């Protein structure tokens, strides 16, 4: 019996998964293990693999098979699988090769120059390259919009958050903007009256690592199918069968490496628990960037910075780092929830972080949809930072609109994922608290199974079998609702 | 101007080099970093890459391009390059895909079962799988021999040692056999009269590693283009631009990890110093397994176990491991040159090692050429072990003919490379001693530049631009001559 078109697609996408395995592993090695002089040959090998994967996805027979499979009698699960194959195919096929190449070149040139331009606060130098990046991203958005029927910006957003619209984001972010600035002020006023004991180092790297490993084990990380290593920028890489997370240590402060490990372990458990039966196909992969971030933020923000969890791990912290007055659950909770509006998004606390994201969303949407020009960015940035966080960035490009790598290589549409992730995570935990009214007590006692079982059933094992809204509704009973995020923040910062 | 056939070949073989980069890196990761549950997905990804590389090498256009290029006006260097491309093409194309697959299956089955069968001394169980492996290797040898005009065994040998014949090996090994057994006896008699102080551990792993790194630096390893890690079986992997060597440590003994590092550093420096202009093409790669081993053994046997070198590193050993009576250059030289005939090849000393190799060569040659059957192997093994080393292996299959992995997966023809490497290394150093009569004094003073400069000029930078005999003649003034090996051993063990 000849293979059906769908079966042939499974074979091709399985081969792609194996190529992606190679890409993930040499990518991890490049960030974690590779000595500097290996970089040129590594870059050439990775580019060759990119060409191979792109060629596989743009092969003419693939388009024919996708069309043929759509006429075959498929089960619901197979239809979902075909939908995700279509999606991956579209991402590779809707753009002409000349645009992909031009984007890669402009992005790489702008990113590379940005590393020194940022250090030199050189906005004019940056702008020269940035104009091309924006122009090509607009072109990409317009081309995609012909197929998607969405706006150019939404078309880029959908690469990371399939199904998300600007109307939805506007609704959600308008809600957040209506209460966040005041909440920040109230939290700061409250914290000004509290006393916080600073933990004093040095904290030996080996002790921090041992502590991190123990916390990973507590969080259910499977060390037989993954590793913890060190890299300059912490990330979660590798493949579902072999997840590689990284952190970075500084002897002066243990708190960042520890919470970084908790964050990456959230990403890792999602990957490690994708369904065995389909993880080699697009439908068996993580749903979206926002859902991935919702796992890391469920671990970091909902669980990790929760006083109950900090009470659970305080003995481990003492055991590995030695006792000190700062190591009480209450004081650690203060350390991990300190609010302070500041310039830099990646260093921002839980409460001010959404303001950084909303600001970027508003600017990049206007930029891609042609409502503003690259030259307008700094003034708009200054105005919004003042309005949302009361921070003055005038003339301070390096700590203002030049601080992120995302725009330098044309990754417009990615920023909203961070705050969507934080909101999904809050909504999961609101659901969990309804199911387990004694959740904090369970956490403090080390009974984390209810959380992991729920996430496994409702998120991890679902992979991309549902679309994002279906996934959230099936998990929590309703679509994304910023109310839970607000409740979580008010509870944590004002109660 | 359209690309010439030769230029098109360069493009294709450059792409292959990049695929090989991926294979080398994920192979290294598998041995050094990968957690156990990652193995199945890794195996699938590596097999997919094998398929891709094989498909690239067996593509019909490649045969046409090779034929067309041979009619183009090429420089001498290009002709050498084309010759090596032809060689790599032949290795992939002379065998039908069905035989390659059957070999892989039989080899994998036999190897896998061997791991437990060896532990159980189960020759009969092993024999059942081994017969298929031998039968397929004979078929391979016969098929190759139709093209090569060599005997079946020589055809397999030529996969590892291109240009080597049995007539040459017989001449060389007959020479060795004529003096080696007596030399072993004399060396043992001499050593029986000497006192050797054993170094007493434990030696902390971190201290052993720091010592190893310092010795690698002394030996010119470029840490900006390579790494030292740990694996169960030490090896030199990675790519020329990023060489990954491994060792293994035991707290009870520092001497093996240290000399293992010296050995792998020899392999590494060859790779790190292959010519930049051609290392992405077959002609710019290592000449043969024997020449590769000649680099590791030049470092380990000629340099590393030399009392002058041991004098040079004794202060480093003391510095990292603490002082003890065993740490004098003279005593370390005794430790590193102890002769003791025994069962196991990989644990054998410099003097008895060639006997292990010659025994295997004689048996595998007869086996592949159909002069003996797999059933005959143990009796022949016992007889030769008795004759060459006076060791009784009767009924002891696990420490006899079942000890090596090579035959289990059909790698017949590989063993001679080890002793050819030792002989080439001795011949290099005989040449160096003619050029630098004060070589030992220079070594003791840390002036290793003459050695590295000579190896770089005559071996490393030559890559595969010459054939092996041309390479050795151009480097040392004559073809491989076992006289230098004998002189070296007599000087070291009887003087």
TrEMBL record, chains A, B:
| UniProt cofactor note | Binds 1 zinc ion per subunit.
Under Enzyme Commission nomenclature, its number is: 3.4.17.19
Supply the InterPro entries for this chain. Answer: Peptidase_M32_Taq (IPR001333)
Which key words are in the record? Carboxypeptidase, Hydrolase, Metal-binding, Metalloprotease, Protease, Zinc
One of its GO biological process terms is: proteolysis
* EC main group: hydrolase
Annotated residues that bind Zn(2+) are located at 263, 267, 293
**CC cofactor:** Zn(2+)
What does UniProt list as catalytic?
Answer: 264
Swiss-Prot/TrEMBL catalytic activity? Release of a C-terminal amino acid with broad specificity, except for -Pro
Q: Could you tell me what this protein does? A: Broad specificity carboxypetidase that releases amino acids sequentially from the C-terminus, including neutral, aromatic, polar and basic residues.
PANTHER family referenced in this protein's UniProt entry, alphabetically = CARBOXYPEPTIDASE 1, METAL-DEPENDENT CARBOXYPEPTIDASE
Family to which this protein belongs: Belongs to the peptidase M32 family.
This protein's name:
Metal-dependent carboxypeptidase
